[in-house]
Specification:
It is built from 13 helices and 13 strands. The protein is of the alpha+beta class. Helix 2 (about 20-30) crosses helix 12 (about 410-430) and helix 6 packs across helix 8 (about 270-290). A seven-stranded mixed beta sheet has the order 1-2-6-3-7-13-8. It has a four-stranded antiparallel beta sheet with strand order 10-11-9-12. Strands 4-5 form a two-stranded antiparallel ribbon. It is globular and about 75 Å long. Helix content is about 40%, strand content about 15%. It has helices at about 5-15, 20-30, 40-50, 115-135, 155-160, 215-230, 235, 270-290, 310-325, 330-345, 400-405, 410-430, 435-450; strands at about 55-60, 70, 80-85, 90, 105-110, 140-145, 170-175, 180, 190-200, 240-250, 260-270, 295-305, 380-385.
């Protein structure tokens, strides 16, 4: 028995009839496990699906080979969706109930980006099917936004105008409590790569070990930033954090390294703190360059604003989430989770998954992700659905558990819930124009009261050409890296 009738019932039945294909596509992206800005096969899989489904698709947008924009319809309100499909380096895991990476130190999933984009695509196509059958006037826009883990895709696409013209955006993300993001939105995010270069005029440096080199500068900067962390009040506030990544440290062991790259990324809950941290990090880089007799060139990789909540959108999506209920796990799904419990020495439970729905105002606590979805909220009324595939609370599961579940039925069921709730919410926005009007009025009011300017400068290119890890065998790729071990 379905949850809804009429237009919503049409979307629900279509998703149920096509659930097997949705699961198959999610499993393919799980197997690909391509990290940010390198999602070649994953992006193509979704692009091909949208084309087959009757959408007009433009690929390679905003100078990112794995970004795309797709549209269907020519009149009526514009309802937006988006797809993510990037894996996380270091999270490789087979779909088995024990710890076993598919590729040692390779990329994988914990928060099911392998289903994130797929479920959004199926929600968009289900909405199209209902629009054709019930003659609903609307336009659908689905954007393929790569590199969410790097917070890169959306800021560049927003700057380039791809977020314009939507009347509402229906966003979602796996994990967290099953809820809808309410008055609190994720943190700001900024990332810069610092490139240290030995002065070419400094004779002999490249071969004379008596001179410091670019690797020394990177290490000095790393130590400088660590020393200054406790002197950054912004890091002490809610959700503040900072991470680093040595992209390249040297060229060989027989001469002084002439070039190194060190990436810093940080999260705060406001833009003044974001800028205060930036100034300290840049001073740390300048000091390291002086000590090591190098030049340093900072390059902005990405910057994300805070987000605008929309109570109207939140309540609308939450109502559909409650009407549908939590994920509808099969006995096979539960058996897999119980095997995980046994392997971890836990007592098996009748319902091994967390099936609670949490009210928005109770969904936060330590749950404050930094995410580039914020950029959407400045262009259209936005709601963000969260649906969890997590196992029962009260035990700290190792990371591989979430990764293993990404390739199993738990994630398939999560995707079905998401696609149905998003499509049903889109139908409400079309068939109840007063809701869309109210959401738009709230959006305009909040944006006027809390305006934050875009942070991405014109002319800045996305960092596609940098030496990001790939972990995929792509013929002809000059960036391919053989995994260690």
């Amino acid at each position: 028995m379905g949850t809804w009738n009429g237009e919503k019932g049409t979307t629900e039945k279509w998703i149920e009839d096509n659930a097997a294909e949705m699961a198959e596509m999610s499993d393919k992206i799980f197997a690909y496990s391509e990290p940010g800005l390198r999602e070649y096969k994953s992006s193509k899989l979704l692009v091909d699906y949208m084309k087959r489904s009757g959408f007009a698709v433009e690929t390679g947008v905003s100078d990112m080979p794995t970004a795309f924009s797709s549209e269907w319809g020519d009149n009526g309100p514009v309802i937006g969706f988006f797809a993510e499909y990037d894996a996380t380096p270091g999270h490789s895991q087979k779909a088995v109930p024990w710890d076993e990476p598919a590729v040692p130190y390779g990329a994988g999933f914990t928060d099911a980006h392998n289903m994130l984009g797929v479920a959004s695509c199926f929600a968009a196509v289900a909405l199209k099917e209902a629009a054709e059958r019930h003659r609903l006037p609307l336009k659908i826009k689905l954007l393929g936004t790569p590199a969410e883990k790097l917070c890169v895709g959306k800021p560049f696409m927003a700057r380039d105008g791809f977020f314009e013209g939507m009347d509402a955006l229906l966003a979602w993300h796996p994990g967290g409590p099953t809820s809808v993001l309410g008055d609190v939105w994720p943190l700001t995010y900024m990332s810069i790569v610092f490139e240290f270069k030995v002065e070419s005029a400094a004779g002999g440096q490249s071969g004379d070990v008596s001179y410091p080199g670019a690797l020394d500068a990177a290490v000095l900067m790393y130590n400088n930033v660590n020393m200054m962390k406790e002197h950054m009040p912004a890091l002490m506030r809610r959700g503040g954090s900072i991470n680093e990544f040595v992209m390249t440290g040297g060229q060989c062991t027989v001469s002084t390294p002439e070039f190194s790259q060190l990436v810093y990324a940080w999260r705060t809950d406001n833009l003044p703190d974001q800028d205060a941290i930036r100034k300290v990090i840049e001073r740390c880089a300048q000091g390291a360059a002086i000590a090591a007799d190098c030049k340093v060139e900072p390059r902005l990789l990405t910057a994300v604003r805070t987000g605008l909540p929309n109570t109207t959108m939140t309540n609308l999506v939450l109502a559909n989430l409650k009407a549908h209920g939590p994920n509808r796990y099969t006995e096979e799904d539960k058996a897999f989770a119980r095997e995980i419990q046994r392997n971890l020495g836990q007592k098996e439970t009748e319902q091994p998954y967390d099936v609670t729905i949490v009210e928005p105002e109770k969904a936060y606590g330590a749950f404050h992700p930094a995410d580039d979805v914020n950029e959407f909220t400045w262009h259209a009324p936005t709601a963000r659905l969260y649906v969890s595939k997590a196992m029962v609370r009260g035990f700290r599961y190792p990371r591989w558990v979430e990764s293993a579940l990404c390739g199993m039925g738990a994630t398939h069921r999560m995707g079905e819930t998401v696609a149905k709730v998003l499509a049903a919410s889109a139908v409400d926005l079309i068939t109840k124009p007063e809701a869309l009007k109210t959401a738009g009025a709230e959006f305009n009011r909040r944006r006027a009261e809390h305006w934050e300017k875009p942070l991405m400068p014109a002319g800045l290119k996305p960092p596609v050409s940098l030496r990001w890890p790939e972990w995929v065998d792509r013929p002809g790729s000059e960036w391919w890296i053989t995994p260690p071990g």
